[in-house]
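Progress narrative, Year 2. Work on Lipoprotein from Pseudomonas nabeulensis advanced from sequence curation to structure prediction during this period.
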Amino acid sequence: MRFTVVLSALALSACATQPPALSQSAKTHLYAPMPTSEAQRVWECAGVSNVIEGQKFVLKLQGRPENWGGEIWATRERGKRLHCSQAEMDAPDMGNFSSPPKSPRPR
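Result:
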């Protein structure tokens, strides 16, 4: 009985970490080159929280499920891979998500 419970828990935890079917833009964002400096990492982390909220709002307006195309999952996963703190993600966008960028990418 105990073995079954542990096995079930492991199976469920694996399902929770599996990525959804990703759109091409989500794949491009997720697999972009990693930053080479701390300044680049902070620049990429800034504004992530606002982008996720914006993506949710746009998908709701379009009548699509919240994680359609995997954009939100890919944005969160990129933040995890960059080791962004919540404060860094809550900071105003420094240009990564702006068009045109507010500030150039740091070197």
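Residues 22-107 form one domain. The two ends are 56 Å apart (CA to CA).
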